[in-house]
Amino acid sequence: MLQALGVGNDAADVYQAMLDHPDHGVDQIADVCGLTPTQVHDCLDELGRLMLVRASSEHPGQMRAVDPDIGLADIVARQEAELAARQAQLAASRAAVTRMVADRAQHRSTHGERLLGMDAIHRRLERLCRTAHTEIIGVQPGIQRPDDLSAGRDHDLAALGRGVTLRALYQEHARRHTHIAAYAHTLLSHGGEVRTAPTIPQRIVIVDRAHALVPTDPADNRKGALHVTEPGIVTALLELFEQAWNTAVPLGTTRPDDPEAGLTDHERELLRLLGTGLTDEAAGQRLGLTDRTIRRQVASIMERLSASSRFEAGIKAAQRGWL
Length: 323
Description:
Elements: H1 9-20, H2 26-33, H3 37-49, E1 53-55, E2 63-65, H4 68-111, E3 113-116, H5 117-131, E4 135-140, H6 146-161, E5 165-171, H7 178-189, E6 193-197, E7 204-207, E8 211-215, E9 224-228, H8 231-246, E10 249-250, H9 265-275, H10 280-287, H11 291-305, H12 310-319
Parallel strand pairs: 4-5, 5-6
Antiparallel strand pairs: 1-2, 3-9, 4-7, 6-10, 7-8, 8-9
């Protein structure tokens, strides 16, 4: 019975023995309980902490048991006070959590929620893909790492299996990377749509036309992302995606690259970017290519147009109706 009040088995036996034999010393109590004197002393320490024993006035150096109606009632009273304090603490904690959740919900609805690091981004994408009902849209500039593709593969395929529409937009040069091409063809084989274009918007993921994730730093998407649910912002991102999607080439098809017919889409975009005043480096970043590749492609265009400068190449391309 005393165990329910936090009294150990041996201590409970010692307490009962002291009540039954108030004149017994430690050695006698040890004999009654089948314990060693050292064990009895340990039990007395425990009973003392519970205030079930006190120093005897009649037998100096000995302890006496406090009457159960007083000692046990005091234990119950202390436990009730501790429980009341704990309940008050839990109530305060619950109120603090409620305020925090409300503040975060208000923050998300007003400004969007910041996700720091790739783990946080992957967790949010996993949750959004699991709950997607109608559509998942993705814009993937640059070259995705194999582990990033692997992190989303199962969720993308599961969404397609539920009948969710999935559209993915990649840059043109992604076709030359085996792991991206393989992933794209996997999406195609399960009913997804994949297109490529020379230049595309920054990285965007839009789910059910209600949730959008955009990088906090477009130069390094691994730093974090912003989860946006504001209808106006999501709609603007959707319009940006649709503009790029409508001019992109479906994966599995190509456009003629006949040099006599004019410029390829990629070359046309390159000249357009350079014509706006971008440097080779800036144009390369937009197209996902190195400076060396940009210079080589510009040289090829100039040679085909018999132009001695980039400016002359632009004029001749426009005169021929290539731009």
